[in-house]
From TrEMBL:
This is Inner-membrane translocator. Signal peptide: none annotated. InterPro entries: ABC_transp_permease, BCAA_transport_permease. One of its GO terms (biological process) is D-alanine transmembrane transport. The chain crosses the membrane at residues 30-48, 78-99, 111-135, 155-179, 208-227, 233-253, 260-279, 294-313. Pfam families: BPD_transp_2. One of its GO terms (molecular function) is L-leucine transmembrane transporter activity. GO terms for cellular component: plasma membrane. Keywords: Amino-acid transport, Cell inner membrane, Cell membrane, Membrane, Transmembrane, Transmembrane helix, Transport. Belongs to the binding-protein-dependent transport system permease family. LivHM subfamily. It is found in: Cell membrane. The lineage of its organism: Bacteria, Pseudomonadati, Pseudomonadota, Betaproteobacteria, Nitrosomonadales. It is a multi-pass membrane protein.
Length: 320
């Protein structure tokens, strides 16, 4: 009887561990997509675009508005989701281009503190703009399809979570192909390696930088849609913490390194999920799962202290 009891307890613990791993992979996939936007911009400009989290939020808000409008006119659910996602990507790409053109390009040769302060200012402007348009309240994000749950081992995973992981993997693979196999990708790598030499070789640096901002913003829109669909809510402040965590993921993997951003995002999601699941046991109930945000910043501090270049190293360090 006692042996059976311990076997049952062990099975429950394994099931909880498996569930937390799945949750971490889902969250980490979102972090990775957002971190890619940070790392691409930093790899080319050496700039931390702290407004990137707000681009995620704007994408989620646009997707919500378009999706609600389409569902009110009895549009097919699949078409409504696709159109709302494309609309969010288009708006975010235009927003990313505008931010780069208006806020960052005039400061490209300024001291590094100037664009950093500008990025924080753009973030605050976008937050307040979203608050004025959509209000302070939380908005429910409608799912026009049945989000069925599935038993996977001892854990439960739903269709949205499966879609998030699969779509994130496909996008990350496509981005690696774009950067390493296309003409624009070669131009991006050339600008990141040596802007002056790239200019002498006929590369239009302004076009490459604008494309990078637009591409990162499109990924941010997709990430915003994923987060909204997974949690079912949208809020004007949702991009701030998500942006900070994605930045932490980029630093963890090695900011300026695409593979590092992917690895860092997934690792941070797993660390946060496992920490939230077991922090109560580790602290004797003193801390609960609501303290999960603490883990991201513990990781950031540890990385900056012990390995500032990140797990996979910073690409710009080679150039320096």
């Amino acid at each position: 009887m006692c042996r059976f009891f311990f076997v049952e307890i062990d099975q429950i613990n394994v099931d909880i561990l498996f569930q937390q791993i799945i949750n971490g992979l889902v969250q980490g996939s979102v972090y990775a997509l957002v971190a890619l936007g940070y790392t691409m911009v930093y790899g080319i400009l050496g700039l931390i675009n702290f407004a990137h989290g707000e681009v995620v939020m704007i994408g989620a808000m646009i997707a919500l508005t378009v999706l609600q409008s389409l569902l009110a006119t009895a549009v097919a659910p699949v078409l409504a989701v696709l159109v709302s996602l494309l609309a969010a990507m288009a708006v975010c790409m235009a927003l990313g281009y505008t931010i780069e053109r208006v806020a960052y390009r005039p400061l490209r040769n300024a001291p590094r503190l100037a664009p950093l302060i500008t990025a924080i200012g753009v973030s605050i402007v976008l937050q307040n703009l979203a608050m004025m348009i959509w209000g302070r309240e939380y908005h429910s994000f409608p799912l026009p399809f049945d989000n069925a749950s599935h038993q996977l081992g001892g854990a439960i995973v739903n269709d949205v979570q499966i879609g998030i992981v699969v779509i994130a993997l496909v996008i990350m693979a496509g981005l690696m192909w774009l950067v390493h196999q296309t003409r624009m990708g070669r131009a991006m790598r050339a600008v990141a390696e040596n802007p002056a030499a790239a200019t002498l070789m006929g590369v239009d640096i302004n076009s490459v930088i604008s494309f990078t901002f637009m591409l990162g913003s499109a990924l941010a829109a997709i990430a915003g849609f994923m987060v909204s669909a997974n949690y079912g809510i949208v809020h004007y402040y949702m991009g701030f913490m998500l942006g900070l965590k994605a930045f932490t993921a980029a630093v963890l993997g090695g900011i300026g390194n695409l593979r590092g951003a992917m690895v860092g995002g997934v690792l941070l999601g797993l660390i946060e999920s496992l920490g939230a699941g077991y922090i109560g046991d580790l602290t004797g109930g003193f801390l609960g799962s609501n303290y999960q945000d603490v883990f991201a910043f513990f990781v950031l501090i540890a990385v900056l202290i012990f390995r500032p270049s990140g797990l996979l190293g910073e690409k710009l360090a080679e150039r320096a």
